[in-house]
Amino acid sequence: MDVAGGTYQLGPESGKLLVKTGRSGLGAKAGHDLTIEVTRWRGTATIDTTNPANSAVTVDVEVDSLEVREGAGGVKPLTDSDRTEIKKTFHEKILHTAQHPTIRFRSTLAEGSPASFAVDGDLTIMDATQPITVQGVVSDGRVRGSATVKQIRWGIKPYTAFFGALKLRDEVEIEFDVALVAG
Fold first, then answer.
1. N or C: which end of the chain has fewer CB within 10 A?
2. What is the CATH number of the domain that holds 148?
3. Residue 1: inside a domain, yes or no?
4. What Cα–Cα distance (Å) separates residue 160 from each residue in 23, 27, 97?
């Protein structure tokens, strides 16, 4: 399906924005690979079908809206208490949401076609801005894609526990699946 040019509103009512973490270290079997959903976010995609380079994307994420949805692996299932503790840890100790309530993405270049596109942009986390590339596709009126965020590039020290035996991998995958809703 070809996508029509125009402006589209993005947010949780039109799709999902997920953060996926992995674990490493000697204690990796004790931890969980997490799927975290961003429950409050807003964005706009302006698509120029005649000149894709004129297309633009912006997304703002409310950091305190991150919710742990799944925990794969581990020696025991993820409990509600675990979810609460994980949320508290990444809000207070990792992302410092009181001081840095928003994560922002602003595109700088779009190229490709609906079948395969890349959007370069600036991602701001905790007042640090770094370039990132988002890869995706458009099909059946939906935009699907992902980007890899290496936490240390934004000054984030990946979480560790058990004296460093359990570590969160530096690479975090951001995935999205969003319906195009004209706005």
1. N
2. 2.40.128.110
3. no
4. 9, 10, 19
